[in-house]
Amino acid sequence: MVNSIIEGLDQYFRKCPLLKDGVFRVDTMGPEPIEYELETGITTPVIKTYLDGSSVRQYMFNFNSKDYYSMDRVQMIQNSTFYEHFCNWVEEQSFLENLPEMPEGCEAQALTVLTPGFMLDATMINARYQVQLQLQYFKEALKKA
Fold first, then answer.
1. Distance between CA 17 and CA 74 in Å, rounded?
2. Pick the CATH number of 5-139 from 3.50.30.10, 3.40.50.2300, 3.30.2000.30, 2.60.40.10
3. Distance between CA atoms of residues 64 and 37, nearest Å
4. Given Cys at both, which of 61, 89, 95, 99 links 108, Cβ 3.0 to 4.6 Å?
5. Which pTM was predicted?
6. Binned average pLDDT, 10 residues per bin, the chain of 145 residues
7. According to the model, what pLDDT value does residue 145 have?
8. What pLDDT is stored for residue 126 in this prediction?
9. What pLDDT is recorded for position 76?
10. For residues 111 and 88, is the Cβ–Cβ distance under 8 A?
11. Which of 109, 98, 111, 118 is nearest to 138 (CA)?
12. Half-sphere exposure of 117 (CA within 13 A, CB side)
């Protein structure tokens, strides 16, 4: 059992077979490639509330990476291909209902790619890419003591 949603996401994405090398972080990214990061997002968490107090919720987050960048066409195709495969992997895992472990009282329902991998910024040495994702989950009503 995990203690938080971000902990469950961290464990989940560490199992992605595409992340062969590089450092994996949460809410921070170092200066050198290759690095991966889960970055928490901003959103209204509650989608729907039921009469008993339980709810369907969303957790928005970004999967970022810092990759090598150059004017070399082959390097840039490799970077874009990684994100195409990464998004396909996320969609396939969600379809197969292989979803992140959640804290007690929560159950993951779907993991959705909201935006495919795109370059946020670049220098002549490295580039930062991002995929925006949504985890939809069910949260049980709080129990009175």
1. 22
2. 3.30.2000.30
3. 5
4. 99
5. 0.91
6. 95 93 88 91 94 96 90 82 96 98 97 91 84 97 79
7. 65
8. 87
9. 82
10. no
11. 109
12. 24
Cβ 18 vs Cβ 67: under 8 Å: no
**What whole-number distance in Å separates Cα of residue 86 and Cα of residue 77?**
14
For residue 130, give both structure tokens: 């991002």
How far apart (Å, rounded) are the C-alpha atoms in residues 56 and 139? Answer: 6
Closest-CA residue to 93 (of 81, 105, 101, 104): 101
Closest CA to 13 of 86, 80, 70: 86
Helix/strand/coil for 16: coil
Domain boundaries, the chain: 5-139
| Alpha helices for 15-142 (secondary structure H) | 73-95
